[in-house]
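Field reference: sequence -> structure
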Amino acid sequence: MGPFQIANANVQVSQTSFHPGDGSLFVDDDGTGYFIYTVIGAKHAIRVEQLTRDYLGSAGATSAVLADGCEAPVLFRRNNLYYALFDLCCCFCPDGSGARVYTAMSPLGPFTELTNINRVPGSGRQTIAAQQTWVAQIPTSDGPAYLWMGDRWGSRPDGVKGHDFQFWSAPLKFSANGAILPLENLPEWQARVAIGSKRLPPHSIYVWPKKKDPNPLKIDPCTGKPLPPE
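Structure field:
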């Protein structure tokens, strides 16, 4: 809830000089943190880097380059297998992008590419018109479920990217060897979420106050065109 303070205003990773960005965090079962990110200045290469115990800097250990020309990476663990998902750069593309699946026995690899779960077989089309943003793990009565999440760029008529919709998949399905089965574009799905044995007492829902952005974007960073006022 804040107020937040900057703990490290000059975070350095191994690829700092090559403009790292477009990444996501992963915390392993032992509490070790990792950052999977795009090295924008090195052909949009994907790397994983181990963080210090306080998560405020790099521990110095990095993976090899998983692939280049890619963005929107995410890292998660299921049982004893680590999954890295990402695909080609698309820069806020309405058609979305794929979701390549890489697996490893360690967060730093070596990783092996398995398949692309967001491509229609035999075509270059995406199953889901969205670009990957996260894989969420939720507890259910049948064990942990993993939901693939993607941004549906251009889905709102006002043109404001923060207003675009997201696609949340049904729980991912895995084969016996751990491979993720292709995404399904289902109109609806259900899951029995496990929320604990005790019912929490009712409380008033906090509503975040609406405030005008003091520094709104005026130019689309991808197209260079002016954005409509909010």
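Note: Residues 160 and 230 are 8 Å apart (CA to CA).
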